[in-house]
Amino acid sequence: MHPFVQRSLRETRLVRAPEDRTLMEYRTKEEQVADYLREAILSGRLARGARLKQAEIAEELQISITPVREALRLLEAEGYIDSRSYKGATVVPFDIASSAEILNLRILLEGQLVRYAVERATSKDLQEVRVLADEFAAAVAKQDSMLARGANYRFHRRMYDAAAMPQTLHFVQILWARYPFDIINRISGRASRAAEEHEELLRCMIEGDVAGAMLSLRRHIETGWAELNAALAAGQATSAPPKANSEGGTDT
């Protein structure tokens, strides 16, 4: 079994209910496969328009084809893939025209996730988010774009997990499927600036500064959007596939 899935299947997450009860949530195998593919799409390892073959994915992850099939159905429902094409399941392209609306929805929903993450995060949550922030910064320093984008996805996903708001996180992941991360990721210097923004956001979380964390998150999202528009206006950003090992990263 692929190390990613093997490790993930051993993981459990503590979810704090409003009554301060603690529930143990076990993620299914198909959810682990879906998360693996989400990260691959958002990091650019799976390009927009790429065809997804169930047998190849199952072989790569060393699992049966059934959880792969169910994971692809989940991702189609979220908007990451489209199986209506004659080619079979393919990664959907971005809808640039709808990105402004998605921007506002991201600020609203991710702001709520950050708010509750600050209020509910345990020391273990903060330690794990710290590790992922460091992984992202290290990848940026090495100019490893794929590694940086993957670390960025895990950083935000782990931070939002601490909010214990799975329905809100689900809607956010749907928004991520429709946001032009691949274009933003290729803006010169964006990854380094995003690493600094991560640090500010994490500092607010550690200090328990809810208002500061929400403001940092909003600036983080809006800065990436502003840099995208500036790059498009200057003709410095295109929808062409990124080159391997160029500076990558994120707006998020």
Kindly describe this structure.
With 252 residues, this protein is mainly alpha-helical. It has eleven helices and four strands. It has a two-stranded antiparallel ribbon with strand order 1-2. A two-stranded antiparallel sheet has the order 3-4. Helix 6 packs antiparallel against helix 10. The longest helix is centred in the C-terminal third of the chain and has 24 residues. The protein starts with a helix and ends in a 19-residue tail after the last helix. The N terminus and C terminus are likely disordered.
Write the layout of secondary structure elements.
Layout: H1 3-10, E1 12-16, E2 22-26, H2 29-43, H3 54-61, H4 65-78, E3 81-82, E4 90-91, H5 99-120, H6 123-141, H7 145-161, H8 166-177, H9 181-184, H10 190-207, H11 210-233
Antiparallel strand pairs: 1-2, 3-4
List keywords for this structure.
252 residues, mainly alpha, Arc Repressor Mutant, subunit A, Four Helix Bundle (Hemerythrin (Met), subunit A), 2 domains, two-stranded antiparallel sheet, 11 helices, disordered N terminus, disordered C terminus
Quick summary:
The chain is mostly helical and 252 residues long. It is 64% helix and 6% strand. Strands 1-2 form a two-stranded antiparallel sheet. Strands 3-4 form a two-stranded antiparallel ribbon.
